[in-house]
Design goal:
The complex is a heterodimer of chains A (149) and B (619).
Chain A: H1 4-11, H2 19-30, H3 35-45, H4 49-58, E1 70-75, H5 78-81, H6 85-96, E2 109-114, E3 126-128, E4 131-133, H7 138-148
Parallel strand pairs in A: 1-2
Antiparallel strand pairs in A: 1-3, 3-4
Helix pairs in contact in A: 1-2
Chain B: H1 8-22, E1 27-32, H2 42-56, E2 62-67, E3 79-82, E4 86-88, H3 96-106, E5 115-116, E6 123-124, H4 131-134, H5 152-157, H6 162-170, H7 173-183, H8 195-204, E7 211-216, H9 225-232, H10 234-248, E8 252-257, H11 262-278, E9 293-298, H12 308-315, E10 339-343, H13 344-356, H14 358-362, E11 365-366, E12 369-370, E13 372-379, E14 385-390, H15 395-402, E15 412-417, E16 423-426, H16 436-441, E17 450-455, H17 460-474, H18 480-497, H19 505-519, H20 523-526, H21 530-538, H22 540-547, E18 563-565, H23 575-579, E19 585-586, E20 595-596, H24 606-610, E21 616-618
Parallel strand pairs in B: 1-2, 7-8, 7-10, 8-9, 13-17
Antiparallel strand pairs in B: 1-3, 3-4, 5-6, 11-12, 13-14, 15-16, 15-17, 18-21, 19-20
Helix pairs in contact in B: 6-10, 6-13, 7-8, 7-10, 9-10, 9-11, 10-13, 17-18, 17-21, 18-19, 19-21
Classes of the chains: A alpha+beta (149), B alpha/beta (619).
């Protein structure tokens, strides 16, 4: 009973209403929600797998696909939009040769977007893992990616 | 960490003790390490201060404090040094040793780190005299500078939790509700429902078990007022919540925080933990016999969960779908029990009302719209950041006095308030007093306090399309008008932006808008038309230019514009050649204008942004 999923469930006292938090912890562990783990969760919490999938697909924060080593989040909030956030996203898509929501073939980067990160004053903002990059412009994209590599 | 406090007298004693400790004659440095200062590198600056103080061993001379948001995010990383109220901005790690040497140890002010207001000649030394701060009334945000949000002692030292002690020992629940009613406080989440009346209904609703909930699911893109408050001063929200719980008769509270706010989540978690250890949460709070517990729930990145019934569904572990509100949540909410849900900022106002009295609160703002409101002033304005002003201040004053006007001397076009449920307000309405009723009358709304300023380079049709694209993604899909209506409206706007619009589209958009308003299940759908209707009403010319002339006057909509080189202005420096991602620009030799190949141009705007000579044009 000492596997990761049991530990997470224990942390929430097996409380079914904490499903979102449980899924979040699970995702933090694996970077995505692996089907095998969701099946285990379904059994342990006695919740139908369909219901768990219903939650996992309803909320944007969850990914059912394996993600890359680094998660790139482009903020597409209004404040970032009016300062050209979509052009930054396009630039990232071009340079990484993937679309939003996809992972590079070498599994290094996953490109995602978010609707606001709460640092609107510095928009357009890109977040890579835990690091924030403010006042983004197209010409800053390449050096930013190089630094991560 | 102080030991458990068992009575209001012990709290008072601790307050005096901590106050004395804070009054130690040391120089006090408060450095902002809020979410918005981090992209500017506030983390390394904080580390530099720590190691510099340690290296010199000057703990007896200086109190260093890491705080949440100071508000003036545009100028981050920022710091305030007391005594003197010295405001330093755009601090780099290299500046830190000099700040310690000169300002902390030798009382000298560093001119180059001061804010230079274009309005005045020279630099401004004091925070209170900087235009951005001078015109505000920061009854909530002002405390952010004074406290380390991860240390409950700081909050107690400035009088924190004395309102709770007063509420528990000197006031009856009815008296508290009366005070909140008299204060005129209206819900800060957007709709502006009177808070006191909501509490009263919840208190009167039959049932032994009741819940109080903090809505910190600030999903409105472009608004971060709640984030600033929860990250910078989590205890004021918690104190308000405990007071509300006592007044309503609830023993269990929930705080629903957006998962995209990791720092807010961390700080409120620490706050709850500390409050519990010290006896301000849990059983027999302050020896009053009142019990109250709080649980934190993280959101899953769904905008609709800001809606009360959707949020409650999510708290129950279900997908965040709203329900029809024939029965109000104050009667049957979470787990079908009476539940009172208020926004972060609403809760944060409660301790102020209890401490200073409802008359004091009502004296701020205007009749029917009392108190202050925090706005996230962002977009094309010079001074972006979190601003707190009395309700009723004119939009013009917020944007031009506090915000310092429009960036790069461009022309103001519109200000968007209320997020995806709000609308765009044009220049001719700039003298509108900002309050719940006037914004609604103008076709917009207060929302959670987003205020996004747009200039002549923003296309209003594109903005309308942006919001509907957002709402289409965020619609939960439960009701047909919202799920299908928003999609159709977005498709029509897409057509217009791509030059495929028809003149009848405007009427069709209006007709669809009316259907959505009348028949959507929740406010996400019924307010979705606002961005479209306001832009049609105030910026019809732009729609017509797209539909009839097939032009985008702001130069935004890709299918309707092309980039070109203005030969007279181009010095042939080749900067654009190097940065063009598709090799569409050809170098023709030094001092000769470059040549742009339209067939290769993907309109990414890189050349336009990078050219310092203004030699790239859009038409």
């Amino acid at each position: 009973m000492n596997d990761k999923i049991s530990q997470i469930i224990k942390k929430y006292n097996k409380d079914k209403s904490q499903l979102v938090s449980i899924l979040q912890d699970l995702q933090a562990e694996y970077n995505y929600l692996p089907r095998k783990e969701l099946e285990k969760l379904s059994k342990k919490l006695d919740i139908p797998l369909s219901q768990i999938y219903s939650m996992a697909t309803f909320f944007k924060a969850f990914s059912l696909k394996e993600r890359g080593k680094h998660i790139i989040n482009v903020c597409l909030g209004t404040a970032c939009h009016v300062r050209g956030a979509d052009l930054i996203l396009e630039s990232l898509e071009r340079q990484l040769q993937i679309k939003r929501g996809e992972t590079t073939a070498d599994r290094k980067f996953t490109l995602e977007s978010v609707n606001c990160m709460g640092c609107c004053a510095t928009g357009p903002v890109v977040k890579i893992d835990d690091e924030y990059f403010g006042h983004m412009t197209n010409d800053k994209v390449e050096p930013m990616l190089k630094n991560i590599q | 960490m102080p030991r458990k406090i068992r009575s209001p007298e012990e709290l008072k004693k601790l307050q005096i003790e901590l106050g004395r400790k804070a009054n130690n004659g040391k120089v006090k440095i408060s450095v902002c390490n809020g979410t918005a200062c981090r992209p500017y590198g506030s983390n390394p600056v904080v580390q530099a201060f720590k190691s510099e103080i340690e290296k010199r061993g000057i703990f007896d001379k200086v109190d260093f404090r890491i705080t949440g948001c100071h508000g003036f995010c545009e100028r981050g990383p920022v710091a305030v040094i007391e005594p003197g109220n010295i405001f330093y901005q755009k601090i780099r790690t290299e500046d830190v040793p000099e700040i310690i040497d000169k300002t902390v140890l030798n009382n000298q002010v560093l001119d180059r780190l001061l804010f230079k207001d274009p309005e005045y000649k020279g630099a401004i030394e004091k925070l209170s005299e900087v235009g951005f701060y001078k015109h505000q009334n920061r009854i909530l945000l002002g405390n952010n500078i004074k406290i380390d949000p991860t240390n409950i002692e700081d909050y107690i030292a400035i009088g924190g939790y004395s309102a709770l002690a007063k509420a528990l020992f000197d006031l009856s629940p009815e008296q508290i509700i009366d005070m909140v009613k008299q204060s005129g406080l209206r819900g800060r989440g957007g709709a502006g429902f009177p808070t006191g009346a909501k509490w009263e209904s919840c208190k009167k609703a039959p049932g032994d078990i009741k819940y109080v909930i903090v809505n910190a699911d600030e999903g409105d893109p472009g608004a971060y007022a709640n984030e600033g408050l929860l990250t910078g001063n989590p205890h004021c929200v918690l104190e308000g919540l405990i007071i509300g719980a006592y007044a309503i008769g609830s023993h269990q509270g929930y705080i629903y925080v957006r998962n995209e706010y990791p720092l807010a989540l961390k700080h409120i978690t620490i706050a709850i933990d500390e409050a519990r250890k010290i006896g301000l949460l849990g059983d027999n709070i302050l020896g009053s016999g009142f019990n109250f517990n709080v649980r934190i729930n993280r959101g899953g990145g769904a905008f609709v969960c800001g809606e009360s019934t959707a949020l409650m569904a999510s708290l129950e572990g279900k997908p965040g779908e709203p329900r029809a509100k024939y029965i109000h949540t104050v009667e049957r909410g979470l787990w079908d029990r009476p539940s009172d849900l208020n926004n972060v900022e609403t809760w944060a106002n409660i301790p102020l009302i209890i401490n200073n009295g409802p008359e004091w609160f009502a004296s701020i703002g205007t009749k029917g719209n009392t108190g202050t409101k925090i706005f996230s002033l962002t977009g094309k304005v010079n001074n972006t950041g979190l601003v707190e002003v009395p309700l009723g201040m004119k939009l013009r004053d917020i944007i031009f006095n506090i915000g310092g006007g429009i960036r790069n001397n461009k022309k103001f076009k519109a200000v968007q308030t209320g997020g995806p449920s709000g609308g765009c307000i044009p220049e001719r309405l700039l003298d509108l007093p900002v309050n719940f009723d006037e914004l609604t009358k103008a076709g917009s709304m207060m929302g959670s306090g987003g205020m996004i300023v747009m200039d002549e380079d923003n296309c209003m049709v594109d903005v309308a399309r942006y919001f509907l694209t957002f709402l289409e993604e965020e619609s939960c899909g439960k009701c047909v008008p919202c799920r299908e209506g928003i999609r159709r409206m977005r498709q029509i706007l897409n057509d217009i932006c791509e030059g495929n619009g028809q003149e009848s589209d405007i009427d069709l958009l209006k007709e669809l808008s009316n259907h959505l308003k009348d028949s959507s299940l929740c406010a996400l759908g019924s307010s979705a038309p606002n961005p479209v209707l306001t832009t049609i009403e105030y910026f019809l010319d732009e729609y017509k230019a797209h539909i009839i002339d097939k032009k985008c006057p702001a130069g935004v909509c890709k299918q309707l514009i092309r980039f070109f080189i203005i030969d007279e202005k181009c010095p042939g420096c080749g900067l654009c050649v190097k940065t063009c991602p598709t090799g569409a620009i050809k170098f023709m030799g030094k001092k000769k204008p470059v040549v742009l190949d339209q067939s290769k141009c993907i309109k990414c705007r890189t050349c336009y942004d990078i050219c310092k000579m203004g030699a790239v044009g859009i038409e």
